[in-house]
Specification:
By secondary structure, the protein is an alpha/beta fold. It is 42% helix and 18% strand. It has 14 helices and 11 strands. The strands form 2 sheets. Strands 2-1-3-10-4-11 form a 6-stranded mixed sheet, with helices on both faces. It has a 5-stranded mixed sheet with strand order 7-6-8-5-9.
Length: 340
């Protein structure tokens, strides 16, 4: 399966890159936090600093942009077309949309230098920061606030399940190991509701939020942990009918997908590009696609993602390479088992 191949590629790529780094790279950095050895954080803002050597700054003639593969990537290439057209004119460069098929492939693309700016799902944002040198700068929002979502658990309306504890021994879908609402938040929040993942049920990774929802709809899963905004967008587009489902759990609000640039882009290019993002107002079709959001709302990763990091810590997870490799290997094994 594609997910298995991408995860295998990412794990080997990360290992190869780390092995190739000179030993003095780690010694030269006075503060790194959870950032990978490739990066440094001298100012303590929890994201990678730009290279100190200006010769390492990148100013590509073509900017590669993408958006998190929470659903069909082709859908979002069309949704973002008005913006990518605007961005190309604003920075006077060619801008191309790069379709990614998994969170792993998106993270690997930025780490390897093939992706310059893009939207990352909530959980993958933290992995992208630590493993790929991503620098989050915005979330979709309005003039007043950034946009958020809830972790929800959906079951078929015709099912007997009314609360999380009813799902013991049932088929419950998670999305992917790096996902906040699709995996990390359930690990942290479900036990207090009488349901412990991997103890009371075997975790099944679907790969994406829409695939989890469709799996519940078709009867492949008894329930699924998904992001509320994805669920509502699927209903808006007519892919599902909300009346066919019942929401048996709803969490606190989390920030939705972030937009981040690669840490080694030329600072002058970054400044110009961020202005292009912040000044842009979504046309009606983008507002409809993104639940009324009309702009890129400025955020600070250290503070805005604090709740996400707290949930991960509560689940016993981290956003470092060891945690990612562990969960990625598990997802790969799950995908391989399905293939048999």
């Amino acid at each position: 399966m594609r997910i298995t191949r991408w995860l295998t590629t990412l794990v080997f790529a990360l290992a190869a890159m780390a092995a190739a780094l000179p030993a003095q790279a780690a010694d030269a950095c006075k503060n790194r936090g959870e950032l990978d050895v490739m990066y440094c954080d001298t100012n303590g803002d929890m994201v990678a600093d730009a290279p100190t050597d200006p010769k390492k700054w990148k100013n590509p003639s073509t900017i590669v942009f993408t958006y998190t593969p929470v659903e069909d990537p082709a859908v979002y290439e069309n949704v973002f077309k008005p913006f990518t057209t605007h961005l190309a004119k604003c920075i006077d460069k060619k801008v191309v949309f790069y379709q990614v098929q998994s969170n792993a492939s998106e993270i690997e693309a930025m780490r390897s230098g093939r992706l310059h700016v893009g939207g990352f799902s909530t959980g993958p944002t933290a992995f992208a920061v630590n493993l790929a040198g991503a620098v989050p700068f915005a979330v979709k929002g309005t003039a007043k606030e950034f946009q958020g979502y809830n972790l929800i658990v959906v079951v078929k309306a015709s099912s007997p399940y009314q609360k999380l504890a009813d799902l013991k021994g049932k088929k419950v879908a998670h999305t992917a190991p790096s996902s906040n609402s699709g995996h990390l938040a359930p690990l942290s929040l479900f036990p207090a509701q009488g349901l412990t993942p991997d103890k009371d049920y075997k975790i099944i990774f679907s790969g994406k939020h829409d695939q989890s929802v469709m799996g519940v709809n078709s009867g492949d899963y008894d329930a699924a942990a998904v992001a509320s905004d994805v669920f509502h967008r699927m209903a808006e587009r007519g892919q599902i009918k909300e009346a066919d489902f019942r929401v048996i759990y709803r969490s606190q609000k989390f920030p939705t997908s972030s937009f981040a640039y690669a840490h080694d882009l030329d600072p002058k290019l970054v400044d110009k590009m961020l202005g292009c993002f912040y000044d842009y107002r979504f046309p009606p079709e983008m507002q409809k696609a993104f639940d009324g959001a009309d702009r890129f709302f400025p955020i600070n990763y250290k503070t805005t993602w604090e709740v996400v990091r707290a949930v991960a810590k509560g689940s016993g997870q981290g956003f470092d390479k060891a945690s990612y490799d562990k969960e990625s290997a598990r997802e790969a094994a799950e995908a391989a088992a399905k293939k048999k």
